[in-house]
Design brief:
The protein has 319 residues and is of the alpha/beta class. The chain is built from 11 helices and 9 strands. It starts with 15 loop residues before the first helix and ends with a helix. InterPro entries: Asp/Orn_carbamoyltranf_P-bd, Asp/Orn_carbamoylTrfase, Asp/Orn_carbamoylTrfase_sf, Asp_carbamoyltransf, Asp_carbamoyltransf_Asp/Orn-bd.
């Protein structure tokens, strides 16, 4: 299996063959998750700690379910009541965790780079469940798996990512992954939410939905991240939906078989019309949730294999 990483901190370090490996392993876990007996012993005897410094429903429950289905001992740390709130530094938290000897550490943090800092201080595999506006690698991987299953391939597709690009770690991770897999990516949204520097990723930028969605294979909508906005990025939600919310008229500019995606949680009537979100012929939003569990199982399985190999090598050196 071509996967050489010690941690999963972002899409940026991954090679295309490693991305393909994660998706191929995830395919097997999709099949497992649809069986009556959904359990594997890939992580049997290992300890997984979930540390979410930001609230999350989908991602945390998905990682928890993934770990339990793989046979890990899973612990969720209540970070809202943790020692960090009492003034403990992130480094001291890492040292405390080290003393517990975890094997897998899943971290979501509001500050970019915090997960990478933790990874430098602990003796286990670390998975980034979202850090600030930086990256959200497992979301991009599950989106990739969803696209590959719907379209039969993950290369040379026209893909539009629409909405709040500026505040979105999902957009950044997807831009990197889709670029590595030779896709043509367009960013669509108001200039206040789609900074021109994103052209550095090799994508095209549009501020008109009709132009941006013309003949695309995939329409990926993003949530308006109002909690990260500190100014007037949009005039009003009503005006935003009129110009940038996905409805039937705007979707008509995409290819007839284009799929519609959204990482959730959705603001219906703001980013996307409810009828489109629920259209079983176009929307793959529920499939994204299903793929999320399988991708996280695959990522933890692959990291656990590498961790085991590294520990065995270290033990051999000590002998």
């Amino acid at each position: 299996m071509a996967f050489r990483q010690k941690h999963l901190l972002g899409i940026e370090p991954l090679h295309p063959d490693e991305i393909t490996t994660v998706l191929d392993v995830a395919e097997r876990y999709v099949d497992l998750n649809r069986q009556a007996n959904k359990h594997s012993d890939a992580l049997k005897g290992l300890t997984q700690i979930n540390m979410f410094f930001e609230n999350s429903t989908r991602t945390q429950s998905s990682f928890e379910l993934a770990g339990k289905r793989l046979g890990a001992d899973v612990m969720n740390m209540a970070m809202q009541a943790s020692s960090i709130k009492k003034g403990e530094t992130l480094i001291d938290t890492a040292l405390t965790l080290n003393a517990m000897h975890p094997d897998l550490l899943v971290v979501r943090h509001p500050h970019s780079g915090a997960v990478d800092l933790l990874a430098q201080k602990v003796n286990c595999a670390v998975l980034n469940a979202g850090d600030g506006k930086h990256e959200h690698p497992t979301q991009a991987l599950l989106d990739a798996l969803t696209i590959r299953r719907a379209k039969g391939r993950l290369h040379r597709l026209n893909i539009a990512i629409c909405g709040d690009i500026a505040h979105s770690r999902v957009a950044r991770s997807n831009l990197m992954l889709l670029g590595k897999m030779e896709n043509r990516v367009r960013l669509v949204g108001p200039p206040t939410l789609v900074p021109q520097q994103f052209k550095e990723f090799g994508c095209e930028i549009y501020d008109d939905m009709a132009e941006g969605l013309k003949d695309v294979d995939v329409v990926m909508m993003l949530r308006l991240q109002k909690e990260r906005m500190d100014g007037g990025f949009i005039p009003s939600e009503r005006e935003y939906f009129y110009r940038y919310g996905l409805d039937a008229d705007k979707l008509a500019h995409a290819k007839p078989d284009a799929i519609v995606m959204h990482p959730g949680p959705m603001n219906r009537g703001v980013e996307i019309d409810g009828t489109i979100a629920d259209d079983i012929n176009r929307s793959v939003i529920q499939e994204q949730v299903e793929m999320g569990v399988a991708v996280r199982m695959a990522a933890m399985d692959l990291l656990a294999r590498n961790l085991k190999s590294a520990r065995e090598a270290d033990a051999g050196v000590m002998v």
